[in-house]
Write a structure and sequence with these properties.
The protein has about 230 residues and is α+β, with helices and mostly antiparallel strands. The protein has helices at about 20, 25-30, 55-75, 80-100, 140-145, 145-155, 160-175; strands at about 115-125, 130, 185-195, 210-220, 225-230.
Length: about 230
């Protein structure tokens, strides 16, 4: 065996490329030939695909939308003034649709002292009246599932939100419409208010407070001498 030639080395599996050997390869080298340009099917890399947000016109449009949203939130949180009332003609439709109204009346030094509640009465041809209030849900997770209703109701009880009043009446009429029940003759939308005891007064909280009722909108069907009226 001394001085002889070494035996042939057994066949070995191809050695995987190391990190240093692969760094010199381009993306095109890693793309299969069938997927390269001129072959079918071909899908360009993500970086070369047109993206809608990169379009200059779309970017300017997004900038305008962002400015309108942020500006509307700023106007809604301004203190009461003549300037705020003038700007609210632009801000109000945006915050009503998006629910971005910023109302900080809950906090000191002037927290809200009145509890507001939205309520509706649906009257039928036979004289029966159904009462509706926004859903509350269970005591644990209900507040999260019905928060959108509370936010909506908080906007509807505003005396100046006539467009929302009409929308609420239309929604309730469609919701309570029943072909097996007498037809609806009238829908009344109320703003209920209750003045809470002053903090530190020692008066107990009333679980069933005596609300005062203010009619926001009354809608009567054509069959019952149709029309709409305010209280």
């Amino acid at each position: 065996m001394n001085g002889g030639t070494p035996p042939d080395a057994p066949d070995q599996a191809p050695r995987p490329e190391t990190e240093h050997e692969t760094t010199g390869r381009t993306i095109a080298d890693a793309v299969p030939a069938a997927s390269r340009p001129g072959s079918s099917p071909w899908r360009a890399p993500w970086s070369s695909r047109p993206v809608l947000a990169w379009n200059p016109v779309v970017r300017r449009l997004l900038d305008v939308v962002a400015v309108l949203l942020i500006g509307s939130m700023f106007v809604s949180s301004l203190p009461s003034s003549e300037l705020r009332e003038r700007l609210r003609t632009i801000e109000r439709p945006i915050t009503d649709v998006t629910g971005l109204s910023q109302n900080w009346a809950l906090f000191a030094p002037t927290p809200r002292s009145t509890t507001l509640r939205l309520r509706a009465e649906i009257e039928r041809a036979d004289g029966s009246v159904s009462e509706w209030t926004p859903p509350v849900g269970d005591r644990y997770l209900g507040v999260y599932r019905t928060y959108r209703w509370r936010k909506w109701a908080n906007n509807v009880v505003d005396r100046d939100a006539s467009r929302l009043h009409r929308g609420a009446i239309t929604h309730l009429r469609a919701r309570f419409e029943d072909p097996d029940a007498p037809p609806i003759t009238e829908v009344r939308l109320y703003r209920d208010t209750y003045r809470q005891p002053r903090p530190g007064s020692g008066l107990p909280a009333d679980r069933d407070p005596p609300y005062e009722h203010e009619l926001l909108l009354r809608s009567v069907t054509a069959a019952a001498d149709g029309g709409e009226g305010r209280g």
